[in-house]
Amino acid sequence: MTARHEEIADELRRAIDREEYTVGSLLPAETDLAARYGVSRGTVRQAVAALTAEGLIGSRQGARRVVLASRRSQSFAELRSFAQWANAMGREATGHVVAQEYRPATKEDAVRLQLSAGTPVLHVLRVRGLDGEPVLLERTVYADWISPAVESIEPDCASVTQRLYEDTGLVFAYGEHVIDAVSAGAQDAELLGIRRTSPLLRVRRVTTTREGRPVEWSDDRYRSDAVSFSVHNSIDNNALARKTAD
């Protein structure tokens, strides 16, 4: 049987996800939450502690807690696949390969994947969805050594990351992300079901193994109304770097 504080924590998570409590806003006081749920303040503190440990709310003592993030936000403090992120929100991740072909590595491919120019690499265009609604286009280039394993995965696989781990033991360990905004072109608009020139959040990333061997590089384009990203930093630990646009 689920403990009462776990039920309350889950209700608060869903309320944050629905933006009843938006990022930067305050949760109700412990006394108000205790009255709402008909429990003691100690039970509320247990629920709040769980959300604090997950990074959803601030940990300041003696004051109302500030909402720091929702599960809809993907934090760059962790390296998770799209499917893992969706599952953490209680959503269903979907995927479909639109196009897949081998091409000779361009100069950019060679630099990002540490290969010789002209090496055959696998290009994959994939549409990703939440509960069947398209929200992301992935244009991914896979290094030659992992391309055959990717090529054998069924086109509608929900999690390529998980499948590669199951089939080959591959662990995506490190990622470098560059974020900017672009306008949807004709293909982007058609595949995402949006108007041409609609704003998209673009994340260009290179992912490597624990040993630093590049696995893939990708140009990911998210519908701006569907996904946001968060970066948690502090005076002692700042993972965010500002750069001029390329």
UniProtKB/TrEMBL annotation:
Signal sequence coordinates = none
Record keywords, A-Z: DNA-binding, Transcription, Transcription regulation
Which Pfam family, any one of them, does this sequence belong to? UTRA
Answer whether the UniProt record assigns the keyword Iron-sulfur to this protein: no
Record domain HTH gntR-type: where? 2-71
PROSITE patterns to which the protein is assigned, alphabetical: HTH_GNTR
Q: What is this protein called?
A: GntR family transcriptional regulator
